[in-house]
Write a structure and sequence with these properties.
Blueprint lengths: L4 H14 L14 H15 L14 H23 L10 H10 L1 H18 L6 H7 L1 H17 L5 H13 L2 E2 L4 E2 L4 E3 L5 E2 L4 E2 L4 E3 L3 E3 L17 E2 L4 E2 L4 E3 L4 E2 L4 E2 L4 E2 L7 E8 L2 E8 L6
Parallel strand pairs: 1-4, 2-5, 3-6, 4-7, 5-8, 6-9, 7-10, 8-11, 9-12, 10-13, 12-14
Antiparallel strand pairs: 14-15
């Protein structure tokens, strides 16, 4: 053993004492990031049977496999939810009740995800079939994990929803906060760099391209603005092109609008608007037009 190691141990112990906010010693156990990641993978297997397994799945095996998966997931999910409770427990639903409520929501989540797969296939002429969409499109994986995490989020489960969406973020480059409200037929094309904030509200049949940020206008208020509406509202059938930035809790993009690439938008636009940048002489200015009959 190197003679310098005992001294280094003393230095680290001093750091643990002085910088206590970044270590968790002698406290209640916390959800395991590895365990939550594996739970998320197994939930995707359950949602999309046959798409995430090495061996083919036969219809005769589905009932027994599904029961086995649910039984295993219930136990593991209950264990991680219990670890998310503050020390001393909670006055709300038990970990067992929370786990079962979540699992009971899976059929409805599958129906919602079916609309997302349909939106991706219908919205991308490069897609040969829905199998390709399911296997190769990062947006579908990010949305699926978001919808799972959102269910836990609205149930009031702490920590786990954010761990799930950050796991998907690391895999897909798409960052969707589990608190966001997203309607059906949601399509993220390409996906890399998309950010959807916690209080964002997205309607039905919305299409978002890579690099889009639906964020907060300012976070200087820190924890004082927690729980307030900080992110934009995107109404039905809006298309947001690459690298557009739409900010602010009071910003509403009206239904059927189109937001062009690289647009910086911090104010509301009415339904059927087209927001683009135009080059006029040596200057670039943002232009908004309202054109009800405008078609992509």
């Amino acid at each position: 053993m190197d003679k310098r190691l005992p001294s280094l141990v003393d230095q680290l112990l001093t750091s643990y004492r002085d910088c206590g906010g970044i270590n968790h010693i002698d406290g209640a156990n916390l959800p395991s990031k590895k365990a939550v990641a594996k739970l998320t993978e197994d939930l995707l297997d359950l949602l999309f049977p046959g798409f995430h397994t090495d061996a083919p799945v036969c219809s005769d095996e589905v009932p027994s496999l599904t029961l086995k998966s649910l039984t295993d997931l219930e136990f593991r999910l209950q264990r991680e939810i219990a670890k998310s409770y503050p020390a001393g427990g909670t006055d709300g639903p038990s970990a067992s009740q929370q786990a079962m409520k979540f699992l009971e929501a899976l059929p409805e989540l599958r129906s919602l995800l079916a609309t997302d797969v349909e939106a991706a296939f219908d919205g991308d002429p490069a897609a040969k079939n829905t199998d390709e969409v399911m296997l190769a499109y990062p947006g579908i994986e990010a949305i699926a994990v978001y919808r799972l995490a959102h269910q836990l989020y609205i149930q009031g489960v702490a920590l786990i929803p954010r761990i799930m969406t950050e796991w998907a973020h690391s895999r897909t480059g798409i960052d969707i906060h589990p608190g966001a409200e997203i309607g059906e037929y949601f399509f993220i094309d390409h996906g890399t760099g998309v950010v959807v904030g916690e209080t964002c509200s997205i309607g039905n049949r919305v299409k978002v391209y890579h690099g889009v940020t639906l964020g907060a206008l300012s976070t200087y208020g820190g924890q004082r603005i927690r729980g307030k509406k900080r992110h934009p509202t995107i109404e039905d059938e809006v298309t947001v092109y690459p690298n557009a930035t739409i900010l602010g809790g009071d910003t509403v993009v009206g239904a059927r609008s189109t937001i062009g690439g690289n647009v910086w938008l911090v104010q509301s636009v009415p339904p059927d608007s087209v927001v683009t940048y135009q080059l006029t002489g040596q200057n670039i200015r943002q232009r908004t037009s309202v054109a009800p009959d405008w078609v992509i």
